[in-house]
Amino acid sequence: MSSYAVPYSALATETALVKAELMQAVGNVLDSGRYILGPEVAAFEREFADYCQVKFSAGIANGTCALHLVLRGIGLEEGDEVITAPNSFIASASSISLAGAKPVFVDIGSDGNMDPQKLEATITKRTRAIIPVHLTGRPAKMKDILNIAQRRDLFVLEDAAQAVGASLHGKRVGSWGHAACFSLHPLKNLHAFGDGGMVTSQDPELLAKLVKSRNHGLANREQCDFWSFNCRLDEVQAAMLRVQLRHLDAWTAARRSLALRYNDLLRPYVEVPDEGPGEHCVFQTYVIKSSKRDDLKRYLNEHGVEALIHYATPIHLQPAAKDLGYSAADFPNTMEHVGKIMSLPLYPTLTHAQQDRVVELISSFCQKH
């Protein structure tokens, strides 16, 4: 149990709501004797594809493997470049590097996502792909990004790790690019009980290759078409994810209601994450901005609220990225952003009383400072 009166997450409380359904799903898998790539994975893939408004999806061991396998599948070569945002989780950049290409970053806009106006200047003759990140569950500006990509004949891979269920002008994330990758980590809105990931696409050839590449490159039990990894989604996780998916829209509605309530209550004190035109955000993280972020975070933590930062050090300044040669001055919007952001507790079972306590503390801090 958390020592915080308002913990950042409450996974056990959420799980309790559907525990009977989950246990039944697990029991069915145990009784079936099919534990790897069985009917539950196949069913979840169909249901997830329908949910994301695409033709195809494939279950992968985790979101990072999903990114890596898709990038390997498009045939990246040494010296190729893939453009992404610098303020995300490291998996977007590490997957590019592990697939044999060079991560190239472009600064962000006021929405915290890739700025399309800065994208074109970043493209070179070596650019092969673009990975926009739907950070915090807010859709990136996909129309503008796709217009640029189509003119330059570039592959677009959506990093939708944090954004299942989000949409832009009624079109779900995961259905915009050539492919999209989702994380099903326990802190995601749709989560496994361990690790899990998904890839979506409208391209049957891409998905057919991915289905092989997640399973050693095997065409069947006796034939290996190419060397690859073991990155399969487990049958028992798929069974539990099918339960979770049935409840996702209701949980998303609860999360959005709380987020918009936060916006109304906190607007006088900090910068809140308002939605832009046509955006339907799912608030995987609820991120505010404050010029006194570090002091405010300390104040909240000391008074029983578990506030966190996602992410304090951008990817281009990580030790692993040193050889890329970037400095803090290269992306001023990113640096301004990461110096002010803070994630507040937000989950479907958060009570109004808990939320009011968070707001009360932020109000008290701002009045004192």
Give an overview in words.
The protein folds into 2 domains: 232 residues, Type I PLP-dependent aspartate aminotransferase-like (Major domain) (Aspartate Aminotransferase, domain 2); 121 residues, Aspartate Aminotransferase, domain 1, CATH 3.90.1150. The strands form 4 sheets. It has a 7-stranded mixed beta sheet with strand order 1-9-8-5-4-2-3, with helices on both faces. A 3-stranded antiparallel beta sheet has the order 7-6-12, with no helix packed on it. It is 39% helix and 14% strand. Helix 5 links the parallel strand 2 and strand 3. It is globular. The protein is an alpha/beta fold. The protein is built from 12 helices and 14 strands.
- The backbone outline, from C-alpha atoms, is globular
Rg result: 21 Å
The CATH homologous superfamily of the largest domain is called Type I PLP-dependent aspartate aminotransferase-like (Major domain)
Q: Oligomeric state of the chains?
A: single chain
Distance between the termini: 32 Å
Compressed to H and E, one letter per element, the order equals: HHHEHEHEHEHEEEEEHEEHEEHHEH
Count the beta strands: 14
Poorly predicted sequence stretches spanning 5 or more consecutive residues: none
**CATH 2nd-level architecture of the largest domain:** 3-Layer(aba) Sandwich
Mind describing the biggest β-sheet?
Answer: 7 strands, mixed
